[in-house]
Amino acid sequence: MADSLAILKKSGLAIAILAAGKGTRMRSKLPKVLHKLSGLTLVENVIASTKLVNPTRKLAIVGYEAQQVKTALAAMTDLEFVEQTEQLGTGHAVQQVIPALEGFEGNLLVLNGDVPLLRPETIENMLKTHRKNNNAATILTAQMDDPTGYGRVFCDENLTVQEIIEHRDCTPEQRENRRINAGIYCFNWSALMEILPHLKADNDQSEYYLTDVIKDLSPVMAMDAPPSEIAGINNRKQLSEAEDVMQARIKDELLLSGVTLINAASITIDSMVTVEPDVIIEPQTNLRGTSVIKAGCQIGPGSLVENSLIGENSKVVHSVVSDSEIEAGGRIGPFAHIRGKSEIGENCRIGNFVEVKKSKIGAGSNAAHLSYLGDAELGAQVNVGAGTVTANYDGHNKHKSVLGDRAKTGANTTLVAPITIGADVTIAAGSTLTRDVDPDCLAVTRVPQKTYPGWRPKYLRAENEEDKPKN
């Protein structure tokens, strides 16, 4: 088994992602590759584009705020990090992976961490072209309506690359060529290693350019991709434009899969969200993170669902659900807030202005309005009266409230945790409970009502006294 793993690491496909830049034009302290696009960082989107080619090695070349980038990507346990302490060009960046790929004999795919719109199918086709033609290098290119500023790629009729010329070095005739270099490459690693270590910085910028290796490799082929896929992100405007492209892709896929989007332009959906057929998503709804929306649901209008599961045939209206689970048949909102890994059982209703935090609600239970359930565990068919509050915080620690099956809290009930209310307990309206209640009881903690006929506030009594005739 160990021998097989060793062979796998030496052959196959490695990817190197250039993620060392600061991104000055983003005007942000955050490294450019960590800005979000449809729920994933730019670099995570780039990694996701390789899912169809099954790379055996994944290397991120980091530099600016390297530790911050490493921390953000720590969950990707198969991602290796290589540091580029000085940013001296693309060729210099790829040179940094040489020690990590010692003994490697496969192909190296070089991607840019700020080019997040590449489709997995494009990467797959590029690799197929590279392998089929036994290329030393394959370059991803695009035909641009306005190629100003881009390096031009010159090919013969078979798309064999003859040369790459930077825009500033092109003659007027050469600038008519609309095929540009997208900066995405696939190399035969052994062929590249004969040239890469000897790359020189003989240019005005004193940088090592990866394009300089092309003239010494053969054969080299170009493969065209749609211009929208190779767009780089250098500022917030371009990030916004990329978001529009990504959202259009996500929504098109959902619409064709049997999901209804009402006023799709007002809806946003992250790329990791799963939505099953026969779901209706109403206007002004936002689905975030790794949320899963099961079949038959109506989400919205005006709802936010984040990293949550919404069970079959549930309805979430004008509400926020984050880091929680709603089982089938839930009725949520309007204006409910469910958070903190709460679990809402089947056929529950969490209604107007109810907040549920880190609580488990049993099947068929009902909290219709104006309540707070925090650190609580409710059994099945519990009815929570309006104004019920679980007083779970003593100023230092959080405590748990437990309500048994079929318990009922009257309006304006306060449960001072820790407390356990047994099954089939009825709590009278206005009660504040501080001690456990056995099953099958009525619990009442009211001050006896008193009435005072003719009573008036002091200031009114004083005025009346002044109006009385004097003896």
TrEMBL record:
Comment on bound cofactor: Binds 1 Mg(2+) ion per subunit.
UniProt keyword Ribosomal protein present: no
Subcellular location: Cytoplasm
Enzyme class (EC, first level): transferase
UniProt entry keywords in alphabetical sequence: Acyltransferase, Cell shape, Cell wall biogenesis/degradation, Cytoplasm, Magnesium, Metal-binding, Multifunctional enzyme, Nucleotidyltransferase, Peptidoglycan synthesis, Repeat, Transferase
Catalysis: reaction(s): alpha-D-glucosamine 1-phosphate + acetyl-CoA = N-acetyl-alpha-D-glucosamine 1-phosphate + CoA + H(+); N-acetyl-alpha-D-glucosamine 1-phosphate + UTP + H(+) = UDP-N-acetyl-alpha-D-glucosamine + diphosphate
Binding site for UDP-N-acetyl-alpha-D-glucosamine: 18-21, 32, 84, 89-90, 151, 166, 181, 234, 339, 357, 372, 383
Positions of the UniProt region annotated as N-acetyltransferase: 258-471
Chain residue ranges for the region called Pyrophosphorylase: 1-236
Pathway given in the UniProt record: Nucleotide-sugar biosynthesis; UDP-N-acetyl-alpha-D-glucosamine biosynthesis; N-acetyl-alpha-D-glucosamine 1-phosphate from alpha-D-glucosamine 6-phosphate (route II): step 2/2; Bacterial outer membrane biogenesis; LPS lipid A biosynthesis; Nucleotide-sugar biosynthesis; UDP-N-acetyl-alpha-D-glucosamine biosynthesis; UDP-N-acetyl-alpha-D-glucosamine from N-acetyl-alpha-D-glucosamine 1-phosphate: step 1/1
HAMAP family in the record: GlmU
NCBIfam families listed in its UniProt record: glmU, PRK14360.1
Family in the record: In the N-terminal section; belongs to the N-acetylglucosamine-1-phosphate uridyltransferase family.
Protein name listed in UniProt: Bifunctional protein GlmU
Encoding gene, per UniProt annotation: glmU
